[in-house]
Amino acid sequence: MTSEEPLVRIIGSYDYPLKRMFPDGAGRGGAVRFTTEPVMRPDFLLSVNYPRHDIEIECPVEHCWSLTQEPPHRVFHWMHSFHPSFGRLYSSDPSIEGPGKTLTHPHMHWHIKRSLEWLRQAVPPEKTKTLSTITSDMRWLKGHRLRFDFVKRLNEELELDWFGRGVRPLE
Q1: Residue 101 binned pLDDT confidence (cut-offs 50, 70, 90)
Q2: Between the CA of residue 85 and those of 41, 99, 137, 149, what are the distances in Å?
Q3: Distance CA 80, CA 91 (A)
Q4: 3-state helix/strand/coil string of 31-81
Q5: Angstrom distance (rounded) from CA 119 to CA 113
Q6: Residue-wise pLDDT tens digits, 41-60
Q7: What is the predicted pLDDT for the residue at 30?
Q8: Residues 6+ apart with CB under 8 A from 58
Q9: Phi, psi (5° rounding) for residue 64?
Q10: Would you say the pTM of this structure is higher than 0.70?
């Protein structure tokens, strides 16, 4: 689809909240356009976690990138592995090596159902406590439990402003 503004098609394991993450609400970041529409010939493909269904696409492998948001746990190991359909892998698993692999944080999007513009214009709430955290109550994996227990103990010692799904959701 080559144009002056490269087009990046995003596919993934869930409905990506694309529009609310860009200033114009239309999936434009600088000189790059992003879409979740089924474009056959994008300039780049970004697969977040895994596609929910088979796709057909015409895009060079070196322009097809896989981004894994899940932790490097045995349940998700397959997501952190190279697949021949992707030229790049962005993963938080330090044990994976190879050309095209980038060790990175999981790139989690925000779960607040507000636009970037709303967030930019919002007045920050008054801080009344020493420390704030956004940490959900998820305890499915060992890492989730360790994180939750750590924040719970911190809260007992410091009395935090603790936000997150299942604790104190952000509206």
Answers
A1: confident
A2: 15, 14, 35, 39
A3: 6
A4: CEEEECCCCCCCCEEEEECCCCCCCCCCCCHHHEEEECCCCCCHHHHHHHC
A5: 10
A6: 999 999 888 788 888 899 99
A7: 82
A8: 40, 41
A9: -105, 120
A10: yes
Residue 99 corresponds to which amino acid?
P
- The structure tokens listed for 133 are 């955290």
| Pairwise CA distance, residues 145 & 108, whole Å | 18
Q: Which amino acid is at 8?
A: V
Helix (H) / strand (E) containing 146: helix 142-158
Q: 18: which 2 tokens?
A: 């694309």
Of the ranges 21-30, 32-41, 121-130, 137-146, the best mean pLDDT one: 32-41
Phi-psi region of 30 (alpha: psi -120 to 50; beta: other; left: phi over 0): left
> What is the percent of the chain with per-residue pLDDT over 90, rounded to a whole number?
20
Closest C-alpha among 144, 29, 14, 146 to residue 67: 14
Instruction: Give the C-alpha separation, 98 to 114, whole Å.
Output: 38
Category of 25 on φ-ψ map: left (φ > 0), alpha (ψ -120 to 50) or beta: left
